[in-house]
Amino acid sequence: MGFLDPASTEDDLRTGTNVEIPLWLAESLYSRRPPLVSVDLPKIYKEAYREILNADACTVDLHKLGQHFYDLGCYVAKHDIKGEVGNTLVNTFKQRFRMILSASTSTDSISSLQPLSNSERIRTANAATTEKALSLWLKRGDCPLSTANMVASHRKRKRAEMEMV
């Protein structure tokens, strides 16, 4: 496995050597019996970054930190016994939701998209498209909403009457 480390001149890696490898390769090497490697959390999900994200996730540029922050995080969270990564993902999204919502309704969305991850950008673009379509439909006014006859003629019953039946 010496070829995995560009600085290595030997055919084999020494025990304890840290090498960054793709997730699919790490999973494959770890699933063998006995495991050939030990796997650490990616740095963006370690405790130091989790503390930063839990403190104020809106100030973090997720695009620079990890373009696929939520996608990779969901995968990592499946293997996280303590559930800390999953909690961080939920808290991060909750904190960033208002920023995502305002970016989707803003006309100047290019500058506000900079700190968003790829999945946030996709959701923001979809929300902006939906917002524009709704706005056009409301402005068009050729299909006003009205109450259906069935709803208008439906007599509400009191709860007491329903319990007697």
From TrEMBL:
Gene3D superfamilies: 1.20.58.2050. Keywords: DNA replication, Nucleus. Pfam families: Sld5. Its main location: nucleus. The keyword Nucleus applies. Component of the GINS complex. Belongs to the GINS3/PSF3 family. The GINS complex plays an essential role in the initiation of DNA replication. Required for correct functioning of the GINS complex, a complex that plays an essential role in the initiation of DNA replication, and progression of DNA replication forks. GINS complex is a core component of CDC45-MCM-GINS (CMG) helicase, the molecular machine that unwinds template DNA during replication, and around which the replisome is built. This is DNA replication complex GINS protein PSF3. It comes from Iphiclides podalirius.
